[in-house]
Write a structure and sequence with these properties.
This protein is an alpha/beta fold and about 200 residues long. The protein contains seven helices and seven strands. The chain has one domain: Rossmann fold, CATH 3.40.50. The protein is globular and about 40 Å long. Keywords: Methyltransferase, Transferase.
Length: about 200
């Protein structure tokens, strides 16, 4: 689903980048995030700021996907080396083979995807054994409060509680290695076990 114009503008400002770098990114690093020499997929890459953070750690390969062509255009304008950006629906990752990525990262976009459970299932399929899935997501109640004040018009019928999200990770056979709930946001490291 496309972002409302107000949210689109806010997601491309310095306050959003500050939170992404100093809260989300640093928490993921404390959880063990290390993209070095890994094949990385970022779902909901937006304007490419997450790509900048990930590429600073020298991954083997980076692919960022987003549904909005405007975001893909902004990401490509960054001219990042060893990065490709594709317009793609997060619920349909058929472009990627089974077990083709070492690391998948999401910086808060699942609540925009009506088929968010399918996204988690697809992430499990695409992730290699012993791979990691890092996710930041706001809970439904947090989004309701933000929508009341900011009028971002989130699709609240596709939003979920953090408990529902955690249950879905476990249902798809992920092991939750780390979690942190902060002011209505959940940050997670989920792991795909070796079989």
């Amino acid at each position: 689903m496309r972002l409302h114009i107000r949210e689109f503008k806010m997601m491309n400002t310095w306050p959003r980048r500050f939170v992404q770098k100093h809260l989300e990114w640093r928490t993921f690093q404390r959880f063990g995030l290390n993209p070095w020499q890994k094949e990385v997929l970022e779902i909901g890459c937006g304007s490419g700021y997450g790509a900048c953070l990930l590429l600073n750690s020298s991954p083997k390969d980076y692919v960022g996907i987003d549904l909005m062509p405007e975001q893909i255009a902004l990401a490509r304008q960054r001219g990042l080396k060893n990065a490709s950006f594709l317009k793609m629906d997060a619920a349909d990752l058929n472009h990627f083979a089974d077990e083709s990525k070492d690391l998948i990262v999401i910086f808060g976009i699942l609540h925009h995807v009506p088929e968010w459970k399918k996204v988690i299932k697809e992430c499990y399929r695409v992730l290699r054994r012993d791979g990691d899935f890092y996710v930041q997501e706001p809970c439904k109640r947090f989004l309701q409060i933000w929508d009341f004040f900011l009028r971002w018009h989130h699709p609240l019928d596709s939003c979920f509680s953090l408990k529902e999200f955690e249950n879905q990770l476990v249902a798809e056979k992920f092991t939750i290695l780390h979690r942190r709930n902060f002011a209505g946001m959940g940050l997670y490291r989920a792991h795909k076990k070796c079989k």
